Amino acid sequence: MQNNKLRYYFFILALFFLSACGGGGGGSPSDNNRAPFITNSSTDFNVKENQTEAFTVTASDPDGDPISFSLSGTDSSKLSINSSGDVSFISAPDYEDPSDENSDNAYEFSISVTDGSLTSSKSFTITITDDPSDNPNTDPTCSVYIVEGDIAIQNAEQCEMTRGGFFREFIQYVPQSINDNGENAPIVFVLHGYTSYDDWIFDYSNFQTQADEHG
């Protein structure tokens, strides 16, 4: 009788161990899941103002799982990202009127990539650069032309202005011996390789341009 009881106990224990081994041997498939990650080598981008396209973020999932992107962080509300990773401004940025958090034309945010279970993130910065073509025209501001040694040149002025989106510097000289309808007419020397006509610079008329040996 005692032997039968022992056999019974051994049988019960054997069933218990077999059940435990059979139920947990393989584990859950999600135990081996690996997180996707962003593969962009650069996280700083320069984008010219007045356009919405910024850059494309790229990512990889070691298990080949489908991935999706999302934005977060300080200036993320100014941007959007699609399923392909294309990052765009919701409204085209204006260099002269920045809309980022601290108004320094540097938009800071994070991009997250997820496979539905695991997520990884990376911080990015987009710096807006000036497009001079939309800069307003300004009238010339001039001062006495000073050369090396603090010598003032008589009848000469050094001037600067913005025209056609570009900053210009020039020197104008008004010799007493040159007259145009009884008025002194300036001779204008323009720096920075500017090749337009003098009358366009000041919106004057009756200028006569003189080309140098290079035209």
Features:
four-stranded antiparallel β-sheet, 215 residues, 13% helix, 2 helices, mainly beta, 2 domains
Task: Describe what you observe in this structure.
The chain is mainly β. Helices cover 13% and strands 38% of the residues. It has a 4-stranded mixed sheet with strand order 2-9-8-5, with no helix packed on it. Mean pLDDT is 77; it is low at 22-27 and 203-207.
What's the short story on this structure?
The protein is mainly β. The chain has helices at residues 2-24, 198-202, and strands at 37-38, 44-48, 53-56, 59-60, 68-72, 79-81, 86-89, 106-114, 119-129, 141-147, 151-163, 166-173, 179-180, 183-184, 187-190.
The computed structural class is: mainly beta
Enumerate how many helices there are, as a single number.
Answer: 2
Q: Could you say what the CATH architecture of the largest domain is?
A: Sandwich
Low-confidence stretches: 22-27, 203-207
Task: Give the averaged pLDDT, no decimals.
Answer: 77
Number of DSSP strand runs: 15
- Overall geometric form: rod-shaped
Beginning-to-end CA distance, first to last residue: 124 Å
CATH class of the largest domain, anyone? Mainly Beta
Order of helices and strands: HEEEEEEEEEEEEEEEH
Calculate Rg over CA atoms. 37 Å
Spell out the CATH superfamily of the largest domain.
Cadherins
Strand order of the largest sheet: 2-9-8-5
Please report which band the strand proportion falls in: under 5%, 5-15%, 15-25%, 25-35%, 35-45% or over 45%.
35-45%
Assign a percent range to the helix content.
Answer: 10-25%
Tell me about the largest β-sheet: 4 strands, mixed
Q: Give me the CATH fold name of the largest domain.
A: Immunoglobulin-like
The tally of structural domains comes to 2
